[in-house]
Amino acid sequence: MNTDTPSSRRQLPDAPLLAAIAGRETSRRPVWFMRQAGRSLPEYRKIRAGIGMLDSCFTPDLVAEITLQPVRRHDVDAAILFSDIVVPLKAAGIDLDIVAGTGPVVANPIRSAADVAALPKLSADQVEPVSQAVALLTRELGQTALIGFAGAPFTLASYLVEGGPSRNHEKTKALMRSDPQTWHALLVALADTTITFLHAQLAAGVDAVQLFDSWAGALSLADYREFVLPHSRKVFDAVTPAGAPKIHFGVGTGELLGAMGEAGADVVGVDWRIPLDDAVRRVGPGKALQGNLDPAVLFAGWDAVESEVRRIVAEADRAVEAGARGHVFNLGHGVLPDTDPDILTRVVELVHSL
């Protein structure tokens, strides 16, 4: 039985993130950064020294501390749970590891219907350390919202089929096209895994959830609609009764924004390639937008950063006038490892001042 009902989560009437998503007046424009907890912070590198990535993700007190670090340092308006999109796959028993400098590497890639049939199912107790970390965090965060997250079925599938990160996703697309039945069976299984993982986080008390479809931008609009959208929609439909805001994000998805807007999220994340006042026309009215500073601009010096932040805020305001429900300032992808943390702090201060 799932307990991820609205009554099981904190009530945060003053949290700017949640107010902006709902289209309410906010005390300040909310801002947080994807990958805000991680290698850009010296305190993160210190606490992670000698501890593997996946081991870190299954250690509740370490997850909580790493999640809190950017909130303390930057005064961001949301914490995002420190984890990885392959955590539920690992928890279920799939043989994989996160290799430094490479990313997730799968020992036995999925290539056939038999491989799909052999995939283990995830149960909530297998991600109990994650639930424990959420419980620790909700006691510490006060009025700062906590975002849980999971990888979308397509992005998880791309790792499992390719065996690791891929530039062209050729094995993934080949399976999709040559054996649609096996492909859809794989995504049905991965959608169920994602739903279980998100339900566990919601039951433990996260205030919002984000679905990362990191590699969906590799697809054509037609392929996205046929092979991906039904499964992402299934995930959002399953977690909607919990009442927590839902965010959907992918990289290079400018041509997919309309279809992504149909998947069921309340917020659509936009990468840096599309102006927000253009994105709102693609997504359609009634949803909030999130984004969309290019992470590389953070290396260009403060004058360039300030100019870009002001431009994006102005575009976001026009997007709201055109029908977007609200705006959450973020990057168009994750914080790069060599980013100066002081620049991030200054971005937060600037966004809050506008």
Brief sketch in words of this structure:
The chain has helices at 16-22, 42-48, 53-57, 60-74, 87-92, 113-117, 128-140, 153-162, 170-178, 180-204, 221-227, 229-239, 257-261, 276-283, 302-321, 341-353, and strands spanning 78-80, 96-99, 103-106, 145-151, 208-212, 246-249, 267-269, 288-293, 327-331.
How are the elements arranged and paired?
Elements: H1 16-22, H2 42-48, H3 53-57, H4 60-74, E1 78-80, H5 87-92, E2 96-99, E3 103-106, H6 113-117, H7 128-140, E4 145-151, H8 153-162, H9 170-178, H10 180-204, E5 208-212, H11 221-227, H12 229-239, E6 246-249, H13 257-261, E7 267-269, H14 276-283, E8 288-293, H15 302-321, E9 327-331, H16 341-353
Parallel strand pairs: 1-4, 4-5, 5-6, 6-7, 7-8, 8-9
Antiparallel strand pairs: 2-3
Q: Could you please describe the fold and organization of this structure?
A:
- This protein is α/β, with parallel strands linked by helices.
- It has a single domain, classed as Alpha-Beta Barrel (TIM Barrel), CATH 3.20.20.
- The protein contains 16 helices and nine strands.
- It has helices spanning 16-22, 42-48, 53-57, 60-74, 87-92, 113-117, 128-140, 153-162, 170-178, 180-204, 221-227, 229-239, 257-261, 276-283, 302-321, 341-353, and strands spanning 78-80, 96-99, 103-106, 145-151, 208-212, 246-249, 267-269, 288-293, 327-331.
- It has a seven-stranded parallel beta sheet with strand order 1-4-5-6-7-8-9. A two-stranded antiparallel sheet has the order 2-3.
- Strand 7 (267-269), helix 14 and strand 8 form a beta-alpha-beta unit.
- Helix 7 (128-140) packs across helix 10 (180-204).
- The relative contact order is 0.15.
